[in-house]
Amino acid sequence: MTSAARVLELLAERGETLAVAESLTGGLLAAELTSVPGASRVFRGSVTAYATALKREVLGVDGALLAERGAVDPEVARQMAAGVRRVLGADWGLATTGVAGPDMQDGKPVGTVYVAVRGPGGAENLASLRLNGDRAEIRKESVLGVLGLLCGELRGNVRTQDTEENGGN
Predict the structure, then answer these.
(1) What's the whole-model pTM score?
(2) In CA terms, which of 39, 83, 157, 167 is 20 to 30 Å from 150?
(3) Separation between Cα atoms, residue 87 and residue 20, nearest integer Å
(4) What pLDDT digit, counting tens, does each position of 57-80 carry?
(5) Are 93 and 124 in contact (CB under 8 A)?
């Protein structure tokens, strides 16, 4: 069973819904979720906020935070997850933001990724990923990272992660 299928199954068992906010993954997370038959039972939709202004205007990310730290920041990921949850009326919100390459962004190296989960009852988690590989690999691993983070939350595994992925430093 794929990570997406497992997450959707867990959400369906709980009677809960999901929305996603994507930046570096550019819709890849939504595509992964909607590739699973029956995803519409729990998946409400997605916002691909690739442009920094959309993170503020659509998802409600604090403009001062974006101006000070840029879009590649753990707090931005948290606010994106909370924003998409609110905007799309879902129980759970996921977010991806980071640098897929080929160039640095906001002073952050390629492979720097933040993924976040926000859910009911104040449930919240964040992972800081340091990914190696080309653009496609970084985007794919970001999707797997955020799905894994949500799966952990749904199973009651609440913790903040700071992980090294793909042999990163």
Answers:
(1) 0.92
(2) 167
(3) 10
(4) 999 999 999 999 999 999 999 999
(5) no
| Domain ranges within the chain, ordered by starting residue | 3-162
The candidate with the shortest Cα–Cα distance to 63, out of 78, 72, 76, is 76
Fold of 3-162: Maf protein (3.90.950)
Q: Which residues, in sequence order, are CB contacts of 4 under 8 Å at separation 6+? A: 32, 33, 35, 36, 39, 147
Q: What is the 3-state secondary structure (H, E, C) of the chain?
A: CCHHHHHHHHHHHHCCCEEEEECCCCCHHHHHHHCCCCHHHCEEEEEECCCHHHHHHCCCCCHHHHHHHCCCCHHHHHHHHHHHHHHHCCCEEEEEEECCCCCCECCECCCEEEEEEECHHHCEEEEEEECCCCHHHHHHHHHHHHHHHHHHHHCCCCCCEECCCCCCC
Residues whose CB is less than 8 angstroms from the CB of residue 147 and which lie 6 or more positions away in sequence, other chains included: 3, 4, 6, 7, 29, 32, 94
